[in-house]
Amino acid sequence: MQTVKMVITGPYSSGKTEFISSISEIDVVKTEREVTTKAEREVKDQTTVAMDFGRITVDDDLVLYLFGTPGQRRFDFMWEILAEGMLGFVVMVDSAKPETFREAKSILETFRAYAPTPYVVAANKQDHPDAWQTDDMRVALRIDEDVKLLPCVAKDKESVKNVLLELLYSILEEMES
Amino acid sequence: MQGNLRDVSLTQVLNIINLSRKTGTLVLYEAKKTGQMEKVNAEQERERIEAGAERAHIVFKEGKLVHARIGEQDGNLVTVLNKSGKLTDGQAKIIRERTKNVNDKAIALKLIGANYVTQKDIINSIQQYTMDIVYNMSSWKQEPFRFQDNVMPTVERIMVPIDLKNVIIELSRREEMLTELNNFLPDLDRPLKFPPDLKQKFQGVHLSVEEWRVVSYVDPKNTIRQIAKASNMSDVEIRRVVYGLVQAGLVQVVEPAAGSALQNSSGRRARPRPKSSNVQADVVNRLISKIKSM
Ligand SMILES: Nc1nc2c(ncn2[C@@H]2O[C@H](COP(=O)(O)OP(=O)(O)O)[C@@H](O)[C@H]2O)c(=O)[nH]1
Ligand SMILES: [Mg+2]
């Protein structure tokens, strides 16, 4: 049996867990709870390497795994391991939180440096009243014209499907070129 | 489009408005400290800022700056001409008394007819007034803002369109933004390149001597550091000039190829790059059909 993987990355609270939950056939292993107090956070950081994980079974001999990256930058070393052999990656950005755009761009660049695989940017939470338009986000995030920046609502399965399909089309395109 | 100037600078906001040719009003609010903390990311917190009273309005038409108003100033024509020295205080006072409830356009016609000012005086004064308001915002660093699509001023004002590219360059010149500059250009060992539609972009742009010097060195073979050295500029100066040129869309920083320079520039240990997958197109096609069917 062959397994392939894709990585779903992005800043804290951009919607990675939601995205994976919407499409995964198994309950997502949610390891990253909302942490409230500093003490709790410290305990949590020691005990868990937070990572979301979802699965899509294609047929008897093909399975796709979706990995969400841990939010804490101190687990960057995990990113590299996750990036190993990935088909491609999705960078989730909270469209209503411009304060996270810089972080999103920095995560994007880090992953791009890990592996030269195709990627797409998902402008998530487009249903939010304060969501930025994708064109404006492209400028703010300085995303090249040839990179797909897709509107997304992670709670909506169709929207998640669309993002994954667009990524797969890009992967296919690169194979053919 | 909404946010806070802490996260998206005014030059960036203007750049977006310029590129997407927006029409509407950018409202900037007083930064009201809440005393409460908010998460920036998983590890950092900062004080949450709320939008207070409206502090300034900047109006755009199809990506051009057409009007700006700050605080209590209502920016009527007489005030504008008084400020630019085209009308003395005494003249302004008399005209104000005589023209209560007369709109700016009618006042303009009267003033031109009476040879007080020329049409050119009016246009220049309005442009200068508008730009000065925007330039004075270069020190604003934490004001909440919101762009209201298609909202125009309710009071009739004479609107003189101003190309945002020059405003952006000038604003970057004035902005004291060393940290921002460092974030923007952490790596001076990258070359610069021109955008594709070069000729169009450079039309009507006024560059300073330093900017011209940098522009004249733009070449894939020259890194920013080399350009700085050749033109006798400090790191700070070159960053500021490059920032302004990039924000105005006149040059681009060449991004490092995937897997190359970035690891070093961000202080990461250079490690062998993970191999990319080498799956077959057949696998991707099966994934596509599966996801479509879900
Ligand atoms: N309105 C809206 N909320 C979303 C969307 N996606 C995620 N959220 C919410 O945003 C918060 C953070 O999402 P989560 O998936 O935990 O983010 P993560 O930290 O990236 O894993 C949760 O409260 C989600 O319910 C979306 O598309 N629209
Ligand atoms: Mg999560």
Describe what you observe in this structure.
- The complex is a heterodimer of chains A (177) and B (294).
- Chain A is built from six helices and six strands, in the order E-H-H-E-E-H-E-H-E-H-E-H.
- Chain A is an alpha/beta fold and 177 residues long.
- Chain A has one domain (2-176): Rossmann fold (3-Layer(aba) Sandwich), CATH 3.40.50.
- The longest helix of chain A is centred in the C-terminal third of the chain and has 20 residues, at 157-176.
- Chain A is globular, with a radius of gyration of 16 Å.
- Chain B has 294 residues and is an alpha+beta fold.
- Chain B has helices at residues 10-19, 77-83, 89-98, 104-113, 119-135, 164-174, 178-184, 198-202, 209-217, 224-230, 235-247, 261-265, 281-293; strands at 2-4, 24-39, 45-61, 64-70, 144-149, 192-193, 252-253.
- Chain B has a five-stranded antiparallel beta sheet, covered by helices on one side. A two-stranded antiparallel ribbon of chain B has the order 6-7.
- In chain B, strand 2 (24-39) and strand 3 form a beta hairpin.
- The longest helix of chain B is centred in the middle third of the chain and has 17 residues, at 119-135.
- Chain B is globular, with a radius of gyration of 24 Å.
- In chain B, 29% of the residues are buried.
- At the A-B interface, strand 2, helix 4, helix 5 and helix 6 of A face strand 1, helix 1 and helix 13 of B.
- Magnesium ion is lined by residues 16-17, 32, 52, 68 of chain A.
